[in-house]
Amino acid sequence: MRSTIRPLPLPEERVYTVGEITSAVKVLIEEGYPSLWVEGEISNFTHHSSGHMYFSLKDEKAQLRAVFFRGENRLLRFRPEDGMKVRAHGSLTVYEKSGQYQLLVRRLTPVGVGELEMAFRQLVERLEKEGLFDASRKKPLPRFPRRVAVVTSPTGAAIHDIVRVLGGRFPVELLLYPVRVQGEGAAEEIAAAIDRLNGAGGFDLLLVGRGGGSLEDLWAFNEEIVARAIARSRIPVLSAVGHEIDVTIADLAADVRAATPSSAAEMLAPARGEIEELLCTRRERLAARMRDLLRFWKERVRRFRESRSLGRPESLVRESAQRLDDLSRRMERAESVFLASLRERLAGSAATLRALDPHGVLDRGYCICRAGEGGRAVTDAAALAAGELLEIRFRRGRAEARTEKVIPEAEGG
Amino acid sequence: MKEKGTTVDWEKSVARLEEIVRSLEGGAAGLDESLLLFEEGTKIVRALEKRLEEAELRVRKLVEREGKLEEEPFTEEKT
Q1: Which residues of B touch A197 (CB under 8 A)?
Q2: Are A236 and A253 in contact (CB under 8 A)?
Q3: B7, B12, B50, B57, best to mutate vs chain A, most A CBs in 10 Å
């Protein structure tokens, strides 16, 4: 009997170490999938304090871990959230220490909606929830701003349009604060400009904007930093970004939104014609009122004189002779001041004559008659001769006439 | 450097003008007071009309110099 413990036979295949096999898998995976797009739903998303993003992409069948390092995710415009459907571009890597494979993400885009659009929606929602766009926060624009600061590009279409439109309007002092309006760092410049102008003070209005462009071009005006700078501005902000259809977050945060830089210029200053009209009607109302007053007082004086001359005391008007003279004098002064101011304003037209007449006589059908060399107004018919040439001026237009017959004023006529 | 014209406070002047017109039309003022209001109102209108005539749009550029915001002439450049 031969009983010997025979050693186990040696395995036919090779025995790997953990390191070796993992290494082999790493090569297989990393060289097999160096660059690819993967679509899935985000879950377990964390944005680490280091700046790195960790999450999983999943679908009904499986799950894939993913990492999006700070260096790459820095450029991300929107915020990834659990449940969001995305497409990730990157490469598969194997992390030996943990024996895990994952997707090293280099780019992330939302599915179904543009990246910028997604970012826009997210920011609008967030800021709206904070109340940044509330109507109650909006300040009114000053009616007649004196110093207006414009935050825009010094070479862009915006400043050009603004200067052009303002030229024909109410004069203001326009101060340009030049900034970049697109590209990296533009949003920071715009926000800093708004803060700086608030700090410096002395401006009645801030105009913030730029000319038209793509969503990408206008993007600086959709950035949170600009929205917040506008919201905290104590000086009223008028936004004017792009064309009519472009509504940016800056527009939502501003106190007033103009569709374009040109319309902003129209909004901030009234047209000269408007102002002239305003002044003209005010002037006319002042004059009309003075006219009425003078008429009233003249009548009063006249009635009193009448009542005194008839020896009947006017019970309603108990003024002494002194007061009567006083009154006359004051009224004459008022009248002469009134006439002087009107004469000064209007010269040499039929309107002048009408306006100079405090009683609106021409309006009521009376006319002014002039005769002889020098065309002095005729007040006494006796000064005329039959056959004399007259110029009769009506409220509108005039006529040349010849005197047929003169009828001087008779006693008591 | 500010021109004299630019110191006219439009906002205040127009407000005062409208106040005067309202008072005068309100009829509460006597003859003397009315006259004074009329004179003041007319003066304001004249000043504003003059300002409107003589003023032009002033455009300047802001630059940062040693921590202060200063003004410089601005000419539009073509891109």
Answers
A1: 69
A2: no
A3: B57
In CATH, the architecture of A18-112 is Beta Barrel (2.40)
The answer to whether the CB atoms of B52 and A275 lie below 8 A apart is: yes
Give pLDDT tens digits along chain A (413 positions): 566 677 766 667 778 899 999 999 999 999 999 899 999 999 999 999 999 999 999 999 999 999 999 999 998 989 999 999 999 999 999 999 999 999 999 999 999 888 899 999 999 999 999 999 999 999 999 988 889 999 999 999 999 999 989 887 877 889 999 999 999 999 999 999 999 999 999 999 999 999 999 999 999 999 999 999 999 999 999 999 999 888 999 999 999 999 999 999 999 888 878 888 888 888 888 888 888 887 887 787 777 777 666 655 554 445 556 666 677 777 777 777 777 766 665 544 445 455 555 555 666 677 778 876 556 677 788 888 888 888 887 777 888 888 888 888 875 44
CB within 8 Å: B57 and A174 = yes
CB contact under 8 A, B6 and A173: yes
Superfamily of domain A119-270: Response regulator (3.40.50.2300)
Chain B contact set for A177 (CB, 8 A): 62
Q: How far apart are the first and last CA of chain A?
A: 177
Using the Cβ of A196 and the Cβ atoms of chain B, whether some distance falls under 8 Å is answered with: yes
Q: Judge: B6–A337 Cβ closer than 8 Å, yes or no.
A: no
> How many residues are given for chain A?
413
User: Nearest-CA distance from A190 to chain B in Å?
Assistant: 14
pTM of the model: 0.66
Domain residue spans of chain A: 18-112, 119-270, 273-307, 362-412
pLDDT, chain A, mean: 85
Q: Which of A155, A200, A285 is closest, CB to CB, to B25?
A: A285
B35 and A333 in contact by Cβ < 8 A?
yes
**Cβ neighbours of A334 in B, within 8 Å:** 31, 34-35, 38
Whether residue B24 lies within 8 A of chain A, CB to CB, comes out as yes
Of B6, B45, B58, the CB nearest to A283: B45
